[in-house]
Amino acid sequence: MKNSRDGKSYSTNLAYTPPEYLRNGKVTPESVIYSFGTILLDLLSGKHIPPSHALDMIRGKNIILLMDSHLEGKFSTEEATAVVNLASQCLQYEPRDRPNTKDLVSTLSPLNTNPDVASHFMLGISKQEEAPTTPQRPLSPMGEACSRQDLTAIHQILVMTHYRDDEGTNELSFQEWTQQMRDMLEARKRGDYAFKDKDFKAAIDCYSQFIDVGTMVSPTVYARRSLCYLMNDQADAALRDAMQAQCVHPDWPTAFYMQSVALAKLDMQKDAVDMLNEASGLEEKRQKGGRN
Hints:
Oligomer: single chain
Distance between the termini: 22 Å
CATH topology of the largest domain: Serine Threonine Protein Phosphatase 5, Tetratricopeptide repeat
Strand content: under 5%
CATH superfamily of the largest domain: Tetratricopeptide repeat domain
Number of strands: 0
Structural class: mainly alpha
CATH class of the largest domain: Mainly Alpha
Shape: globular
C-alpha cells in the first residue's frame, strides 16, 4: 500500500494495520477485531499508542500508566483490567488467537451496570453538550447523498468514480499474474457490469468471488458490495464491508461515508452523524493536500 503524502503518515498507518494484511494483503473478520482492539486502546489511553508498545506495557503490568489520566477515579481496577485484557486479546499477532464478536459482547456487557441510564449522564455530560446531530461542515455530493441515505445517488457516484481510489493498494509483480488472478479479475469485471446494471444480488456474488480469492484487496469492491447489501436491506453486512474498506484504505472518505449510511439504517443515528463528519473531515484534508 503506497502512501500518497509523506512517509511519516505511511509508517503510522502501518503501526495500526493488522499483521496479516502486511503479510498477504488479505482482510478478514479477525482483522476487524484487531482494529477494534486499537480503538479500545485509544479510548483507554486517550492517545494513539502503537499496539506493540501497548502490549509491552500490558505484559509489564503497567495498566494504570496506560490509562488516560482524565479517567482517574471513574473506573475500578477490575474494570480497567478486564477491558485492557480484552484489548490485548484483540491485538494478538495470529488471527486465530483473537476473540470473536460474541466474546467481545460477553466481556463488555457485564461492565455496563446501569443499562437504563443515558450515556451522556454516565459520562457527566449535560444534554446541551452532546455532539450535534447534523454534519459540522459543508458536504460533498457523496456526503450529501449519504446524509440523505439516497442509495440511488450513492450508486451513481460509485459508478462514476470507478476504481480511481484503489491506486496504490496493490503492487503485483509479473509473476503473480496467474490463471487464478485472471479468473479473479474476471469475477470483478462481471460484478462491475452487474453493479452498473443495478443487479445487486449478482454483483454481491461476483464481488464475493473476487474477495474470497484474497490475492488482491480493493476498497472500492468492499464499498460497492456494501451498497449492494444496503440495496438488499442487509445493513449489518453493509457495515462490515464498509469497515473492511477502511481497514484496506484507512483514510479513504468513502469507507467512512458508507459506514455512516449503514449505521443510519441500523438506527444508530448519533454514530452515523459522527462517521459522516469524520468522512467530510478526511475529504477536507485531501483537498488541502491537493492544493499544497
